[in-house]
Amino acid sequence: MVELKTIFLKRGKEDSLNRNHPWIFSGAIHHSDCDLLEGDKVRVLNSEGKFIAIGHWQIGSIAVRVLTFNNEDIDSEFYEKRLATALDVRKSIGLLREGDACGINKNSTYRLVHGEGDYLPGLVIDVYEDTAVMQAHSVGMHVDRILIAQSLKKVMGDNLKAIYYKSETTLPFKADLNQENGFLVGHSHNDIAIENGLKFHIDWLKGQKTGFFVDQRDNRSLLEQYSKGRNVLNMFCYTGGFSVYSMRGGANLVHSVDSSAKAVELVNKNIELNFPGDKRHQAFAADAFKFLDEMTTKYDLVVLDPPAFAKHRDALKQALRGYTKLNAKAMEKMPSGSILFTFSCSQAVNKDQFRTAIFSAAMQAGRNIRILHQLHQPADHPINIYHPEGEYLKGLVVYVE
Length: 401
What we know:
Blueprint: E1 5-9, H1 15-18, E2 23-25, E3 29-32, E4 41-45, E5 51-57, E6 62-68, H2 76-92, E7 109-114, E8 123-128, E9 131-136, H3 139-143, H4 145-156, E10 162-165, E11 182-185, E12 192-195, E13 198-201, H5 217-226, E14 231-235, H6 241-248, E15 253-258, H7 261-274, E16 281-285, H8 288-294, E17 301-304, H9 316-333, E18 338-344, H10 351-365, E19 369-376, E20 394-400
Parallel strand pairs: 1-4, 9-10, 14-15, 14-17, 15-16, 17-18
Antiparallel strand pairs: 1-3, 2-6, 4-5, 5-6, 7-8, 8-9, 10-11, 12-13, 18-20, 19-20
Helix pairs in contact: 2-4, 5-6, 6-7, 8-9, 9-10
């Protein structure tokens, strides 16, 4: 066993760890046997010196992210086992698909590692065709990035040509790591990946998250089923995932809106990639609230998928007001018989609070609505049963009368 620095907990503070919760808060720590550097691997003992866990030390309210509750080395073998298990899960649920001879139903876009949901807290890995985009949300995972990349390449073999590290904006800024994005393994100029038979340009160099919102895949497929013959409005469209699916679903027209001109350029590229020359689509660079106020087109299928309104609990009340206002504006303009797909990706907002915000929006708009579906993150964004905080995406599909 590699010798690690040791943290001792206060008496009685191991209860949540005995229930396999993967976070240790700073208030639970009594002392350490030596000075700690952010990103250090630490062995955690209770007040009586009994082994509890091993994890990454970090500065902040969450002081340790637990990697294992076993007394084992955190080495290449450890990461290979965790990554291999994560890959097996994705294979078992049918996410890796070659499709038919024409590529119909092919899928080469998925999340391989979802932090605590895959027992690798602080790490996200998304796969786009033969490129993996790796993102660290903790200094510990940043420190281990080369080891993780090597382990990932070993697990995936020739199916993986490149690993791109994209953590400039996700690492704690106080750590002052001066991290730059770049390839850790190989190199790739191919920015096209396939999701359920549809092609998308993935901007992992400068795009949001890892370059694409993989977590809406199942919800995009559901939208496709409702799109035939409808006028579709996709607000906060980013890369246009919902727009592309609704085009394939047979929409009458599809309008995409985003405040970013670069996002509008990207959605147009993705529409052209799948439906060259198709005149049903049009994109607008505009503020969402202003667009809803001024729109004259009657949209009977609307998607509201805004960025997180609440990054932390202090912003919760303001966020709920924002969701209510946004949804009320949309409902006011929608014809009777319309369908609204509405989402929140704010972890601080729970399902009941979001549902109450939509209830308030319906009341403000003077509309009757029926809930058709309650939506959530897909299976490649698993929730660790011992870590309910991992459930972040929630959505409703409502019928507006």
